[in-house]
Each structure stands twice: as structure tokens, then as C-alpha cells.
Amino acid sequence: MKHVSILPLYDATLSSIDSSYQLFSRVNDFMKYQGKPPFYTVELVGTQKKTKLNNGLYHIHADKNINEIVKTDVIVIPLLCGDFAKAISKNKKYIDWIKHQYHNNAEIVCLCVGSFFLASTGLLNDKKCAVHWAVKNEFKKMFPGIKITDDTIITDEKGIYTCGGGFSYLNLLLYIFEKHLGREISVLASKMFEIDIERKSQNPFVIFIGQKQHGDEVVLKAQEFIENNPTATFTVDGICDKFSIGRRTFERRFKNNTSNSVVEYIQRVKVEFAKKRLETGRKTVNEIIYETGYNDIDAFRKVFKKFTDLSPLDYRKKFAV
């Protein structure tokens, strides 16, 4: 049997705490239906008896204080809301306990932007972390040494699990059940809670937001130029000429400041332009592709799928309003 400690962190969301509690508890019910003993003991474990959640909108009561838990097997860090820096400061009393439990072989299951708090413990150093696309730039600024993954919604590294996307933590919990109890229980939980077990990526949901929190004026002007002209046909040399800068220097500075090459940035802007047209317009897919400045339809389709995991037609079917 595994002991699960769900932490009612200051300014966590009630939904992520309750969902975790319900899913771990229901897995015990599934085991019971199969004539097997319960697998999890689930408790809310805090630094005080009552904690404010969601900017004081709710209060939650802990079952036990962290000082009463000598050994736990799974620590669930819930999704945070509001001011991440403030939440990190308010939750500092958990850090030593979490680190001690992790070094005593506890697994850490971190839900979405709970990763801001987990990163503050130092346990994510030299590890991969999945972060919600909307706060990726903020996370990079606060924790520049942590490697963010863009291609999956779940990371699994040395007993630490993270996920990107507001409710993708449900997929992470299914992943944990599969690791602990096998595919059958994970699929059963997926069916009972109607969670799409095959969701693997944030890419279809991402709205591209260029990283602009840097001090390079030339790069910033180039970004704005590209974004303000999504239908134009660009060359890197042409952009360099416009801003009177050598190509090698410009490409290096652009990559360092935006985490994208110049070509990738142009592609992302054009894909975002096409996505909006696919969502709301009535033009054909080919007409929209030509409107982005691409003459090679197949080339754009490949670029579009690279960043969204969907073809333009499938994207329209999924998101058209």
C-alpha cells in the first residue's frame, strides 16, 4: 500500500486538490470491485490545520500536519493560481519536508503550474519539466536553468512527474495509476471519469506568444516586424538588411533571446495567423495557406503539423467556431 500526501498549498486550486483526492480514492474502489485490497492511503497533509485557497475564495482543512508524516510514498503538488512568487514564499515551510521525503524515495506528482513551487525547491534542477504554454516565458525567466519540454504534456524523470496544461493533470494521474497498477486500472479510470487517455501533447492548444522579456532592442524590433506582417514573404537576409545587422550575429542573438531561430519564429507567426483564419473564416484551407505567403501548400502543411500535431483541416474540424 502506498501513502499519498496531497499538499493543500497556499493559493492552490480546490479543483486540483479534490480531483486528486477523488481519483486516488476511486482507484481503491476499483481494486475492491476486483476483490483486491486497497492500494492507496490518501491524506491531505499541510503545515497548518486550515489553508487559504484560490486567493482566499476557499479554505481547506488538512488531515495531518507534515510533521506527523515520517514517511510518505507519493507527494501531490497541486495547481497554483495567482501570483507565483507570492505562492512560493507562502509555501516555503513545505520545502525541507518535500526534499527529505524525495530523498527517502517518495515520488513527486506535480500538477501543471505547481511546477513553479516545485522548481523553487531545487529538485527540478538538471531535470525536464512540462509547463503550461501560457506561462512558459514567465517560468523561463524565474528558473532559467530548468529545461522545459514542449513536445509532451508529461515528464517522468527520477521519480518526479510534471505536466503542462490546466487539466492535463488528469492525464498525469492516469499515467501514475498505470505505473503503479498497470494499464487495465488506468484505462478503467479513464472510462469511469471520461478522461481522454491518449492526450499526449499541448501543441493543438498552444497560442504562440513570442518571448519578449529581454533587453535586446534589435531583436524586439525584428519580432514586432515579423508579427505585424504575417502574410509577408521574409528572408533572414532581408530582415538583417532592414535592421542593419550581420546575419551571424543577428541569428545568434535572436535564438538566445527568443528560444526560436528566425525561421522558426516566422513559421510560428504564420501558423498562428492561419489558425485564426481556420477557426473563424470561410476560406478554403489552400486559400488560407496562400494568404500566409506560402506558395508550396505541402511545405506549409508540414510546418503547420510540426507546431500543432494536426493538419490544417483537422485543426479546423476541432476548433472552428
From TrEMBL:
Protein name: Helix-turn-helix domain-containing protein
Molecular-function annotations in GO: DNA-binding transcription factor activity; sequence-specific DNA binding
InterPro entries, sorted: Class_I_gatase-like (IPR029062), DJ-1/PfpI (IPR002818), Homeodomain-like_sf (IPR009057), HTH_AraC (IPR018060), HTH_AraC-typ_CS (IPR018062), INH-QAR (IPR052158)
One of the Pfam families matching this protein, by short name: DJ-1_PfpI
Keywords for this protein: DNA-binding, Transcription, Transcription regulation
Domain (HTH araC/xylS-type): residue spans on this chain: 220-318
